[in-house]
Model the fold of this input.
Amino acid sequence: MQPDECVSERAETTCESLIKAKPGTNIVASETLLRLPLCKLASIAQGEAKVELMTALGYKNDDSLSTCFMVKDSINEMTISDLTHTNRIFVNYIKEIDPNFIINSTENFGIKVDKVGFNYPKAAVSYINNLIGTTTLRRITDVVDDSDINKETEMIIVTAAHFKGTWEFPFDFRLTKLRDFHPTEGKIIRIPMMTKTDMFRYIENKDCQAVSIRFGSSRASFTIILPNSPQQLPALLDNIYNQKAYVYSLVTRMRNQPLKVTFPRFKVKSFIDLTESVKKLGLNTIFNTTSSGLEGILRNSNKSIALNKIKQKLFVQIDEVGVARFIHFENMGPPQVQESYFENSPQFTADRPFYFDISLDFDNARYEMFTGVYYGPEETTTANEIQIKASK
Done:
C-alpha cells in the first residue's frame, strides 16, 4: 500500500510478531489475502467492531472500502499460471445466516463464504480440509485441526495459497551452481544458487542492497532486501517494521542498471494461526461472543455471531523458471558470454539471510502479496539437487 496508510503498519506489525516469535526460522505471510475477508466483515460490521476494522484496514468510510478490492483482478490474473489460492469465511450452518452475506462475495470481495455444520466438529474439520485441498489442487492441505473447531464455533477465516513465480525473463538452469551460503555467523553451507546478468531495478545504502525482478504476471514483482552482513539482519528487520515506509521508499528509489544477480532457489512454507496476532492489533470486538458487532451476518440482529479463528497456510517457491517449464536450454547451445556492456556490472549476491516480498505494483499503491524472511534451507542441500534437466 501507499506508505501513509494504516494497513501498511498493520501488515508490518503482524509480520514482525510472527518473525520475532521464531527468529532464525523461514517464514512467509500474506497481508493481502488476510485483508480481503476482513474487508468483507467491515462492510457489515457495526459499532466498535466497525471502528476497529476500518482503523486496522486504513479506511475512513465505507466508500473507501472499494479500494480494498482493487487487487482482486490482478490476483485472478496470477491464478492463470503462478498462484493457486482460496480465501474463505466459514460460518455455522444455521438458518439465521442472511443469504445476502453469502451472495456476490467472490465478485465483490474476492472471497467465498461457506456454511458448515460446526455442531459436528470432526466432520467440519474433514470437510474444510478436503475443500481447501481440492481448490488448491492438493498443494495446500490440513489447514485446520481438531483443536480449531468445537460445538461452540461460529465462524472461522481460512486463507491458503501456493505460489510458484514465473519470471518475465527466466533464469538459465545451466548457470545454477552450488555456492556458499552463510545462514549464521561462522557457518557455511553449499546450496544451489541462480545467476542472471541483465538490467534490474536496484538500490544500495549503508544498511542493505535491494533488487526487484519482474514476474510474467501483470504488476507482480519479487524484491529481495539483503543486509550488508548476516549480523545486520535484525537491525534491517527493525527498520522495515518500525518505519512503515521503509520498503516502499527503497522500491520507489530503485533505478534500472546492469547487475549480476545471484540468489538461492528456495521454498518457504508457513502454517500460521493469526488469531492472537490480529487481536494484538486492536481487532478484539469481532471475537466477542456476546457482542461482536457482526450481527449484520444474521437475519435477526438481536442474535450474535463472532469470529473464532483465523488460519493461514502458504507455500512460496522460487526457481529458475516457475510454472511455465517450456524452455529447452539444451537446444540453445552453451550459455552466452555476457557482452562487454555487462562486464564490470556490480554484483548482488544473496549468500546470507534476507527479507523478501512478492508484490502487486500499481501507479499509486504497492500491495505486498507475500512477505517473509529466508534463513537458508531447512535441510542441508546436496550436490545431487542441482542435477537439473531443462526438460522438466
Notes: The longest helix spans residues 6-21. The chain has ten helices and 14 strands.
